[in-house]
# Entry
Amino acid sequence: MSWQCGAAQPILMDEELVQKAVDEQTPRDQGGRIARAEGIHLNEVLTIRLDFKHILKIDNLWDFTSLTRLYLNNNFIERVEGLDHLANLTWLNLSFNRIERIEGLESLRKLELLNLSNNRISVIENMDELDNLSHFFISNNLLEQLDNVLSLRKFKKLFDLNLSGNPLSKEDGYSYFIAAFFPNLTCLDFRLLSEEKKKEASIKHYLAVEKMRQEELQKQQADDAEQSRKAELQLHTDAFVEFLNGSNLFKSMFKDDPEAETLRCVTGVAHLLQTFEQQMGELCEQLFEIGLAEHKRREAEVNSFLSGHTKLVTDYQKKASQVLAEFEQQHQERMVEFRQLSDPDKLQVKIGHCNDAINQLSDSLMSLELKLNSQLEDIIKELDINISDMVGSFTETVQGIFAQFRDLEDTYHQNVRDIALATLEKVASDSVGEDMSGDVRWLFTDKNMVMDALATGHDNHLLKISDRETQCVTRVEAWKVSLVKGIQDKELKRNHKCIADTLKYMDHLREQLDEFQWPDL
Amino acid sequence: MADSSCPESHRINSAAQIRLLTFANNFQRQFSHMYPDRRPLLLFPTNECGVQKFVSTTLRATATVQPELFTWEGCAEFAASFLSLEPLDSPIDLPSYLFSPASVLKTQRATCFEFATLLCSLLLGVNYDAYCVSGYADKEMCLLDQSLQDCPLLDTPVQSVISEESQENKYKEKPQRSLKSHFMTQEEQKKKPSAEAALLENLKPDEQGEQRPVDRLRGLRLHCWVLVLSGSRSVQENFFIDPLTGISYGTAAAGFLGIESVWNNHNYYVNMQDCRSGCSDMVYDLEDVNMWEPLLFGATSKKQLIHEALNKNLYKMTQDVQEELEELEEQAFEMPRSWVSDVSITKKDLETRWPGGHKLTRYRKAELERFAPYLRPNGLITRLVSYKDLDCTEVLLVKEWYQHRTDHLEEREVNKVDNATTERFKRGRRFDLLFHRYESLTTDGAHEMKFSSIRVDNLVQRLVSPGEMTETFERRADSLYYRRVNFGRHVQFSEEHVNSEPATRLLQVVERFHRNSSKPANEDVAERVFLLAQRRIEVTYHLDADTFIPSHRSFIKPREATEQKKAEDFTQDMVSSFMVGLSDTPVKTLILYEMLVSLMKDEEMVVHQIEESLKEVRDIVSCREEEEGDIQLFFSPWTTTGAARARSKRQEMERQAAEEQSWLHENEKDILAPLLMRLDITDPLSADDAKELHQECLSEFKQKLVEDANLIQERYQNETQELQKKQQWYHQNQLDMTEQQEDEYQTYCSDRTLQIRVAMRRLKMHQEEAPLKYQALDERLREDPRLAPHLLS
# Structure
């Protein structure tokens, strides 16, 4: 380890050092010459070697945004830092340094190879983001806990691992332990893991591995369930009927309604409430089903539009390609002719012909594009009409069902009112039985208060229903508008781009022609 | 006709048969009395031994062990192909004889009645409800003249085009209104009929040529065929089989003109229906006495048997009752057993098929020749020659089918019009060739080759013509699917050119790629054109979803360094590019340079691959030539020919082995022979002679060993001396020697020492082995049968 104990002074990693390293690694051949002539941009450099440089601190690397390989081995680095901008890094060598902690790797999501051998690391940590890690070398460090290594199990792509020279690797059965808990590993400590060994190891540690696997499996299943739940909710939201299955709407109506609870205790109200909830639930379910079916229909419509769109565009592309191929063949022949012609007058005439041909090509391509554009606009209009019809009918259905909600609410309110009035009378005449609690009795002493509470509750319920209705209807409308708008915008952009490209190509052809016209220039 | 080798049943009628004959005689007399205008019935023709036999008894239900004959198709094909037709003596008179199926199988010649009898016997044997039908048919059928029919092998299978678009998409291109004059369309319409008429007129002469003169004997020509009724063996509908061709017809087919009678092995039925308008309206309910008059009343019919078999299980309970009923019924006369001896069909018969293993059939404008497997040394089994005209003079197409060939050739089609030969192969041959089309089997002609999809380079098709080669690929990892190569003119695919300078010959290479959707369209190459002659490379990229014009780059290759000049530098001017898209940041020179470098590398590789391809073409052609020159067949041991061949081969091998053994035995060295000759001792040896012989032999051997040892010794000494001489010479001249001489000396020395060492080793070995050899000889002499008795002491 002469580079460490030699006379060399640790140096700072400054711009000059980095620039020099980049310059040194540029090859001396023609490619390198061209690169130098054009100037090397640090954000285009893919690899950089900074080994054996006595570097103390990682620095000045923020320009290298497309760097994929970084060699910082055999330096005096003590902290892993300054790597935050190297998002494309796949290969990082930090071996033979003085690192004590794994850190600063959070932004290296594409990292595949990580070499931390010959450092002073005692714990494997802070590596959660390295999903693509496949090679991990951490030999000759101070790792002691075998269980600590198990945190590497979550790297599904890991197949090459080196742990030799750590205190933990001297433990009995260390290699069997690793082989059992990392069944995907092919290499351990630079040696191929044989199938027999893996088998033996899995038998040895069967119970522990199985237990761990079960736990992971459960976690995985929970995650999956969560995922599918989310996906379902997303589907419902896309169909604009989220939370309409079951009695969510009903519950939300009665959520902030303290009087309702009190009223429930009045005889007859509880029953009314129950019927109300049931009826609401049925209607909601109906609405929900309709919503999903409508969503499917809309989706099918849009898909059929998209496939029709693609077909149309490809057809026209084919036609244009034909035109273009014909032109290009003739053009090639003409070019060959030009090269052979020496008489400037004849050349002029020929060039005139060629110009005509280019104009003709431009015309035919433009007319094709025009036709395509009008065809596409036609089908977009058709889609707009179809989707509008669907959305319209869906909106009507929704409004109809919400009107039924309102009717239900009205009936309920009427019934409760009647009961309340009857109870009021009873309370007034003091002919109620002992079964009425004090609270309720107290409430029913004041007629105005009861009526107010009922009216407010009713208003609240109606408001909730209306809110949900508006939400549904406006969102479906907004979806339609944005869909059609998006398609129209895309078509507009496509049209512009196509025309621009055609014009650009014409300019390109004319430029070529000009070179012949004034060869001296 | 009488043949003493016939079994007794052939020569003599049993009592039951005689009774049957009297019945039949009676029946015939009554029939001719009641229906004087009807023609006579075929009831008891004479058999091969000149004995009258009733036709039903000539049918013998024969079950075979050959799986091919378990279906009616197999039986019909066998009967049609195994026998050759012998026309009736008179086409309108019933034959006076009907040979048994057994003898027919032996001679392989048969009239239509014997054909039908054999086929019917086979069908009855495998449980079909089959009948022989005696009736009238048209001339072509009676005489087995198929020259009016199209060959069944000729019609090419029409590939049904299944429309891909299962459902019409409503978002599609609206057709543009075409402006068209009504008047013009009307005029067009008027013209059409006259054109059609002209077309018809053109057709007519051809058809007229095919018209045959009207047959004077139509409706009188006798024929015999087979009727299969529905009910057994899951036959759904009644049908006819023409035994001469083995083809089945519906019962309403036009070729059958009338039916006189039908019979099977149980009964004989005379048709009572009117068949002036052919057989189309006939009803085949044989139980109905108004339509079919049976010869034997109350005899079991097939239908009854089927019924009984079905009901057996149902009526098990009431069996006793039934038996009683049966007993009550009047015992009817049953058809006696067949007199025909066993009909046996061997595997060899099935394989050889046609008489002599070969058959020629004439069809309309075509001739079909069929051969038994292994009959022809080149494995030919079927040859179809189709002609241009009806008289079969101008050959249009020769199609041949092969089997068991080691070069996997299955089909060859020679088109005489455009002179192209098309060959099709089974999978698994060399180069994975499946299809080969060529005009001449030489390297400089046009070739079309198709390959099976298991090739490593995913090549599917290759078209070679002078000056051009096109290759098509499928499912390649680099999504290349098409490559076209243009060669310089007047260059042929001959050996010298390829080896000398391939690069100069290639004019241009075009490669096309499928779209790889993981790349942006602007970077995904759609077409590469290597213009080798112009030192240019053109790259066209795929079309984006939106645009009409693809991006395009054209590179000019910088000159390589020559002895006079240094290599040309790469500059921006060498690239002309047109990139679609609005972003106008120019691509850096370095990137362009890297592109060019990789393209040039690819070019080299492509050129190499093309060379390989050309080489392969030559290899294939020469391989095919070789194979055609020496055609080998696989002999499957499961065929009789193959088995016979294998047996004879094994016998031959055994014979050779035995011969060799005996030869070895004879030539075993008689060590005593020279001595015996020299000492002039004759057998038997006396005791003294034997001893003398023994001693003589041993001493001679000893002498030989010593001589050998001396020889080796001498050689050893010679070598040593030579080496010493050389060494002395070396020491004298050591100082003024060149390096080369020194080297030579060194090698010489090492050679010599090696030889010396070998000689020493040999001497040593000889010394060790000599006594052993001597002892071995002694023992052998003592065991010699001539000396042993005298040397025991």
User: Anything to note?
Assistant: Residues 185 and 247 of chain A are 52 Å apart (CA to CA). Chain A touches chain B at residues 30-31, 33-35, 37-38, 304-305, 307-313, 315-317, 320-321, 324, 365, 368-369, 375, 378-379, 382-383, 493-494, 497-498, 500-502, 504-505, 508, 512 (CB under 8 Å).
